[in-house]
Every structure is written in C-alpha cells, then in structure tokens.
Amino acid sequence: MPYPEAGERQIMKNISMVKGMGDPQYTRDVLEARRDFLRLRLEHEEMIAEVYDRAAEDVASRARELGERTGELTRRHLNELEKNLHAQARRVREVQENLMQEGTGKAMQYAGKPSQNHLIRALRESGADDVMDVARIQFGFSQVNTAAVEAFWARTHEGLRVSERIWDISDRNVHDRMRDLLEVGIATGRDAVEVARDLEQYVKDGRRTLSGDYHRMMDRMDKRVPKNLNYEALRLVRTEYTKAFNEAVISRGRTNPAYQGVRWQLSAAHPEIDVCDDYAEADLHGMGEGVYKKGHEPTNPHPNCLCHLVPVMMDKEEFIGDLQAWQEDPDSVPYMEEWYNEYYKPHIARGVPYGMPEDLKFPGDFETAQQAEDWANQKYPNIEFDFHGSDSPSTGFALDPEAVNRTLEEFVELADQYPEVAQRLEYVGTYRGPNAPRKYIFDRGEWAHASRDGKRIGLSPTVYKDAEKYKTQLRHSSVTGWHPSGCDTIGSVMRHEYGHQVHNWLEQEGQNQTLTRLTDETYFCQVAGHLHGFEQKRNWSPKLGDYSHSSSESDRNRREMFAEGFAAQRYGTEDVKRSTYVKTQGRLLELTGPDSRDWVPVNDVLWPSDQSAAQREQQRDYREKVERLLQL
Q1: I want to staple 579 with a disulfide (CB 3.0 to 4.6 A). Which of 414, 435, 456, 543 is the partner?
Q2: Cα(605)–Cα(461) distance, integer angstroms
Q3: Is the pTM of this model over 0.85?
Q4: Is the Cβ–Cβ distance between 73 and 182 less than 8 Å?
C-alpha cells in the first residue's frame, strides 16, 4: 500500500465507516477517542526519544571531559564511564516505565469512552436512569478500566512483564550499545571529541549516518548497533499502547448490553499487505467486512501493529426501544434482563469490581476444553483450533482440560516468539471436530504430529484425554532415553511439534530469503542454506534421544533431531543443553530467528561484482562469523 496517498485514503475510509454507524454523537465519541489516543502516543514517543537524546548527551559530555588531557579515550576511561552508563540506563527505564503506566491507563480510558457514553445516553433518553444509577454505572466503567490496567501490567510476554521488558530494553540499548560504540571508538583510535560526536550523532540520526561516514567503525560494530538506539523503546510504546487501547474497547464494550462486537480498522500507516488486511476484509459472522461479533474479537497479530478496533453497537433507536420495553416487562427483552441480573446488580449496584473478560486472561486455567477452544479460535482467527475428543456430539469435548491448558499455554508463548510460523498454520487439533480439514487416524503410541506443509499440528484424542497417564508416559520416555532428558512435560510435546514447523518455515520460506544484502557466488547468506549447512555438519547424539535416530529414513531423522533439539532448548537438562547439537542449534535460531527478522529477498542481494572492496570484506567477515558460530 503506497504511503502517504493510500494512508490518506485509509483515513477517509475509516472515518466514513464510523459515520456509517448512524448515531452522530457516537460517531463523534469514536473519532475523538482515536484522536486523543494518537496525540497521546505521539507525545509519549517524542518524550522517550528525548530522554534517549539526553542520555547520549550526558555520556558524550563525560567522555569529552575524560579525554581532555590525553585527547583520545582509553580502556581506563571506559571503566570510569561505566557508572555513568548504568545511571543513564536506570534513568531511561524509570522515565519510560512511569510514562507507559500513565499512557496505557489513558489509552484504555479513551478507548472506553464511546461505549460508556453510548450506554448512559440511552439510559437517560429511555428513562431507564430511574431504574439504574448512572453515577454507579460511570464508577463501574472506571473499575473495569482499573482492573484492565492492572491485568495489562501483570501479564507476561515471553516470560517478561511490560516493566521487565522496559528494563531489558533500556539496559541493552543505553548501557550495552553505548558501551559498544565507545569501545570500538577506542579500538579504532578515535579521539574523545570524535567518539562523543559519534555517539550523539548515532542517537539523533540513527545507524545509517554512521554507516555512511565511518565504514571502518561500522564494520567492527557488525550487528551490535541497531538501526536506531531508541527503536525498540518506541516499538514497545506503539505495540503496548495499541494493545491497551484495543483491549479496553473489548472490556469496556462488554459492559454495555448494546455491544455487538468490533470492527477492525487498518492503520493509515499500514505500509504493506499482511494479516491485518485479512482481518479488515474478512466477513466471518455476516456482519460486514472487518466486523467480529462479541466473543470473537481479534487481537493485534504482530509487534508494531497500529490497527485499531471500533466498538459496534446496536442501532440507537432500537436499543432505546428495548430499554423502554424492558422497563414495562423485563422478560420481553432477555438480553437486557440477563445484563441487569448478571452485571448491574452483582457488580454495579453493589460497587464490586467487575474485572476482565474471560477471553483476555492468560490461558491455562480453563475449566473445559471447549472454553480453551473458544478462546484460542478468538485469539488466532487464521487457525482452526479443535479440542474435540470424539465424534459423538454428546461427548465432543472429552479432552482433559489440564492437557489442553498446558498445550495451549505453550502454543501462545511460541506464537509470540515465532509469529510467522503461527501465521502459516491453519489447524491445531484432534481431527475430531466438525471443521477438521481431513480425517486422520493416529498410530498407536503417536502423541502428536506436524504436517510438512507448515499448516497443521495434530493432537491424539486418545492421549490428550488423560493428562496424568500422558505425563507418566512422558516421564518414562525421558528416563529411558527415548526423548531428551528433561523433555518430559505436556508443553514440551507442543514445543517439539512447533519446532517441526519452525524447521519448515526456515526451509521453505528461507529458500528465497537471505540474512544480508551482501552475498558471494555460493549464496552463502541464504536462510535455508544456513539451516542445511548446520544439519549437514551435525551428527546424531544420544543426548537427543533414540526417537530422533529410529527411522530408516535419514530425512525423517534429520527433522526429528531438529524438533527434539528445539524442545531441549527450553526443557532439556543442563547436560542436554551443553551438547554440541543443542548449543549450535541455539546459535542457528539466534542467527535466523526472532531477533533477526530483517530478511532480504534473494532478488535484492548485491552480487560480488557489484560490491565495493569494503563490502566484499564485510561479506567475508560475515561468512567467517557464521562458519564459526555454526561450526561449519
């Protein structure tokens, strides 16, 4: 989607869709909420960028002072700067954490206003405010917002809360990256004034300027310096503020009995077609393109997603008519009577906090497999989750909730870490539900499987119906050496099968992608080539378990070794993790995985004949580094 022309068209399209809802006041509330949110986000992005600038200026100033007498920086100077670097990192993370706590709360407040105002106006216009206390309803909305903010900051992503991710980013970028730049300045013999200028210029203008002006220094820096020092911090703000806004649209919407669902609206800054366009164009519930009914609202599918949700309400006049009819005869409007008895009376009238909707809680405590399936299908609209345990409608969800919870918990973590793999998937389940893509009969002793095309992960309904028996089998297989030591949990099986799909992704998508624009005649930088190079050099090890060496087909053994190693990265004992295969696989995953997503299409690479001497040297350095890491 070209930008800005397409961005302007998207803005007008979004406004037109909101105006099409018919209620002028509600339209105004929705547009004002979006306006206030965007102002908030931009203001906080500028403030965070400014605090990074100030941190760099302070460190640069101190570097100049230390180098005044000798002219150039030394290792002794760097040690003296350590205290200042730590202080600046601490200051940055404190500012960002305080700012984001304020910002997420405000984002949720703005997101909830349209739903709140819609309900209160309808109550007053229908006369129902004589029956229900509007002041208490307003207080109830604020309680939902408080509960949502608390849950938001308590939730984890890849094992870290938002506050811990802020600390991790500030330590890595303010302390580590600045120290790297200072260290290379020392190694290349630059004087204190030059190094201080380098640091200030990098923080203000990004890596591109340094790369253009200081080839020698940037060759030494390799990938240690990101494109912009504050990029991760700003991405965290954009991602988490948008998540907070969209989650509040859902949680606050559900406090309004007229709430029917949400409309997915593309961001005006949406640069290219991806899963967000699918969300905006899908009509899964017969409510129009991009509209999702209550209970099936989508979540943001990737970091830096700026798309937003708009709450969809009943027609205003219809809702007012229902409120009037309900006052005359409560049983004549069942949804209103249900809301009054299950939400207003026990929570609003008594002042008891309402909390978060069930589908926004971290999965793992579902009481039934059906609840887990409903949640998963809502969270991942592109995947059909099927936790049926038999073909019989009366006993359809016979899987053990404990087995399902541990499986789904693991899947959520992996989908966050490897979203590209989750986007390729179309089905996860037992092949027993009504929407199963095909019939599949599991072999005796087969717990789960992954399809070669990257689209399916199967779970044996026989195995997953009894979690305790399953765990006994897993422990036995680990103790006897059939699977790696430590890989004896239900979650480790999902990680194994997801590992197959990571392998498929690297092998299939990586055929046409490279990790750098600079290549040699052998296409050494190709993603799939790194995978195959690693596998060709790694022999089977008993640490991986006998299962990965049990087939007469070498290709199958190769794939099973990768999946067992992938599971062992997380669950293997220390002895297993120290094995050559698992250690080297970890380096491969680090090289090609979550932190290395800037893949380059093979058609865009720069051939040796088109490279400068410095670029050819850089390519040779890259090759040497990869060969060393992967022991090729």
Answers
A1: 543
A2: 47
A3: no
A4: yes
